[in-house]
Amino acid sequence: MPSLLPTENLLEIVMTGIFTKNFLLVYFLGLCSFLGLTKETTSSVGMSVAVTFVMMMASIITWPIFHFILAPHGLEFLETICFILVIASFVQLTEFIIRKHKPALYRSLGIYLPLITTNCAVLGVVLLNVRQDFSYAGSIVYGISAGLGYGLIMLVTSGIREKLWQRGVDLFEGFTGAFFVAALLSLIIVNYFGVIKF
Amino acid sequence: MVEKELKFYYAALLLGIIGALCILVFMVGHSMTTMMVMGFGMFLIMLGVLSLLYGIYADYKRTGSLRETFGVTDELIEAIGTIAKLTLIVIVAAAALAVTYEATQEQLKITSAGVESEIFSRVVSGATSFKAVMDESEEAIYYEAYDDAGNLVGYAFYSEIMGCQDVIKIAGGIDLDYRVTGVTIVRHLETPGLGAKIAEPEFQEQFRGVTIEELRLTKDDGKIDAITGATISSQAVVDAMRNKIEEIQRD
Amino acid sequence: MEERRSLSSELVRGIIKDNPVFCLVLGICPTLAVTTSFENGLGMGLAFTFVMLGSNLFISLLRKQIPSIVRLPIFIVVIGTFVTIVDMVIEAYLPPLYEALGIFVPLIVVNCIVIGRAEAYANRNPVLPSIADALGISVGFILVLTLIGGIRELLGTGKITFVMLWLLENGQLGFLELATLHIPIEPATVMILPPGAFFTIGALMFFFNFVGKKIREKRGRGD
Question: Using one digit for the tens of pLDDT, what is the confidence trace for B178-214?
Fold first, then answer.
């Protein structure tokens, strides 16, 4: 079993999560929200904060479930179902709590929560945590930095899109423009960060 | 909601708690006294059960219907039905998965064993059977390679190292003089067209017959030409081989 | 919606009118992630087909028993079961494909197409139309995956192999040459890297939007 304390280079994990293995541009995870929610900066920031929070919490919750419950009993094959159910219940629960106790926060962030359940990026991060045998600390750090990487690209794209929108161009009409923007950003990531070793 | 014979239920609860505490005393020591305390606890719990039954009976007599006695409503029945269906589906799903898991696990062993000896026979030519050499924690360090006649002809091994993108896993073979007999890439995620060329025969053929001293890139006075534009990947393969061969030599 | 639609029209609808990727813009993630080659696209498409068929079949069978309040968890469990089964089978029988597809097989469970069809179609329709719907959607998805995979492989490596290497035994390498098409251009490695995926789907999206618009205009004039 991987240890609780970090055994890997945490800086490397952070850089991998944010840049070299960016979730949107290199792993292609969470593209639905990339296409749907980058219309304005506010919604993309809201979604990014929500995703980062859920990714962190999902890493915190699923690691013990896998390493203390599933793995010791030889039930690794239940990982996918367990993880998705745990994430879905957690998101649902958070939504209830926020709606009841923090209505203002709910109006700005909570509406993005239900979208996260079917966001493949969250399930992707916990599956990658398990497949790469990260330690507990490592997987939490990875969860946070993957969320930050996702947020970075969301923010950049929505900025570009908003500026063009003000000049009367809808970049994402028919989605072609969206994919070309993604291609260019991805080119940057792959070329400039793909070769750096930490 | 009907007024219930609550006093009986409270009594049952209280008796049950005290009884349970008395039984817990038995955990402390197994003397005569604790035995008696436990007996008393059991007696109390029995009284509690009787009280509970009597409460239900009294309620039933007064309302005349079992549904009202237990406070069963239509919503409750529906909720129980929902939970039952959900549970049933989850149990069926888990059973289906367990069956598939058992079935595929067998095949997985066969496949990976087949893949393993297929890979190793490529890196140690002439060898047909391989025996793992374990360390203290039962992990295979390397494999002894035997030919058809049962003679030891060399050693085969796996080695892992960080490449450009992800971990590269290679399989290598050496003869009894620690000369490389072959190398092959088991798994890599290097850049296609550049680092991915480590998986091509032109690169791997260079390793054949090389001694440990010569096992460096040409820029470090070795015999292995790095792939143009992919020095990191080439260096990784060379290092992975060197590290493992040195480990075997020490052993 | 009209009541009696033939099964064949259900099939065709999934391929063209409701093509999951180009018309509904769903399931983009696996479409881009695993399409580095024709055979990987095909492998992913087949895994997807299995899950899609199983999920539509079971959910349509159980549709009268599923309490609507917990339908989403039940969908997830049913889909997750099929996903895990296909994942384990690929791992055991086709290790090279398992390496290539990685976490994208388990991620079918959050694929919007599967859960979307379960919710919108299988939960309301009888078994046979649901199967037809699943087949149509899957064929549409396979076509897109192989198309993108084929384009990227062709431009990125200069050749395309129309056969699944992981099905071939050792002695069949001659057949492999027959099934490989070479083109005399300098390969552009970037097409295999992530940016190539975005370029390809962007260009295809543009093309299909353009064609769709032309067809609609023609129809409009005809009426």
Answer: 888 888 888 777 776 677 788 888 888 888 888 888 8
- What does the DSSP 8-state code read for residue B96? H
Does the residue A56 lie in any domain? yes
The yes-or-no verdict on residue C82 having pLDDT over 70 is yes
Task: Give C-chain residues touching A183 at CB under 8 angstroms.
Answer: 195-199, 202
- In chain C, what residues touch B188 (CB-CB under 8 Å)? none
Q: How confident is the model at residue C3 (pLDDT cuts 50, 70, 90)?
A: very low
Secondary element (H or E) of residue B84: helix B74-123
Strand partners, B187: B169
Q: Are A179 and C202 in contact (CB under 8 A)?
A: yes
Q: How confident is the model at residue C171 (pLDDT cuts 50, 70, 90)?
A: very low
Note whether ipTM > 0.95 here: no
Is residue A142 one of the residues assigned to a domain? yes
Residue C148 structural domain: 8-222
pLDDT at C131: 92
Q: Is B77 on the interface with C (CB under 8 A)?
A: no
Which segments of C62-126 does DSSP mark as H helices, in order?
71-93, 95-101, 112-117
What are the domain boundaries of chain B? 6-72, 116-250
Inter-chain Cβ pairs, chain A and chain C, closer than 8 A: 112
C-beta atoms of B164 and A81 within 8 A: no
| Chain A residues 68-87 within an 8 A CB cutoff of chain B | 77-78, 81
- In SS3 terms, chain A reads as CCCCCCCCCHHHHHHHHHHHCCCCCCCCCCHHHHHHCCCCHHHHHHHHHHHHHHHHHHHHHHHHHHHHHHHHHCCHHHHHHHHHHHHHHHHHHHHHHHHHHCHHHHHHCHHHHHHHHCCHHHHHHHHHHHHCCCCHHHHHHHHHHHHHHHHHHHHHHHHHHHHHHHCCCCCCHHHHHHHHHHHHHHHHHHHHHCCCCC
Give Cα A193 distance to the centre of its chain: 19
Other beta carbons within 10 angstroms of residue C209's beta carbon come to: 16
Contact of B42 with chain A, judged by CB distance below 8 Å, is answered with no
**A118 and C206 in contact by Cβ < 8 A?**
no
